Amino acid sequence: MELILQNIAKHVSLTPEEQVLFLSKLETNTYKAKTVLLNAGEVCKHSYFVNSGILRSFNINDNIVEHVLSFACEGWWISDMYSYFSEKPGQLFIEVLEEAEVVSLSKVNQEQLYLEIPKLERFFRILIENSLVANQQRLMDNLSLPAEERFEKFTKKYGTLVHKVPQKQIASFIGVTPEFFSKMKARLLKK
Predict the structure, then answer these.
(1) DSSP conformation class of 64
(2) DSSP-derived secondary structure letter, 188
(3) CA 179 to CA 167: how far, in whole Å?
(4) Which has the closest alpha carbon to 55: 170, 138, 162, 165?
(5) Which of 54, 101, 111, 173 could bridge across to 97 with cysteines, CB 3.0–4.6 Å?
(6) Are 29 and 23 in contact (CB under 8 A)?
């Protein structure tokens, strides 16, 4: 649980008593690869913190094409934020890509923690703001940057994932077909 406490300490300081209370509201589980933690159409009732392994969130459109929205590796949070905050069925799947130890925080417990440890509300506000900024930047990149530059940004942000995640999922994340991605990567390797 040290990793999640370090993650929080980047933004707020918890007393030892607050740490104990916070940790008491969490549930830790180990999941095998391909385990689905959330299905599209369900209400997302947890946010997830990755102690180890890799998770991804994605959507499947009407043509049964996957669109990867995000990856989460060690030390990252992931959730279907639309569903989590609106308490309505979401459109995202959250899947374990590589065996993972995952910490779950239920929305009910998170709301209770806000009352008992108000500085956690600040912590989660900062996470949400950072997520909003990152998603806006990704949207702008997808609208204005060539695929090669989007791939470069991906490798800078998710450097360790390039060799761990299937190429078709990276292609989906940067908004290109797997075929285009394969050709683009071959061109980049020749440089």
Answers:
(1) S
(2) H
(3) 10
(4) 165
(5) 54
(6) no
For residue 93, the Cα-to-chain-centroid distance in whole angstroms is 11
Rounded CA-CA distance 68/34 in Å is: 15
Taking the model in full, what pTM does it have?
A: 0.92
Residue with tokens 């509300």: 121
User: What value, to the nearest 5°, has the Cα angle with vertex 124 and ends 90 and 116?
Assistant: 110
Dihedrals φ, ψ of 177, to 5°? Answer: -75, 155
3-state helix, strand, coil in the chain (%, to 5): 50, 25, 25
User: Is 106:45 a contact under the CB 8 Å cutoff?
Assistant: yes
DSSP 3-state of 81: helix
**Cα–Cα distance between 183 and 94 in angstroms, integer?**
29
| Per-residue pLDDT tens digits of the chain, which is 191 residues long | 899 999 999 999 999 999 999 999 999 999 999 999 999 999 999 999 999 999 999 999 888 889 999 999 999 999 999 999 999 999 999 999 999 999 999 999 999 999 999 999 999 999 999 999 999 999 999 999 999 999 999 988 888 888 899 999 999 999 999 999 988 888 877 76
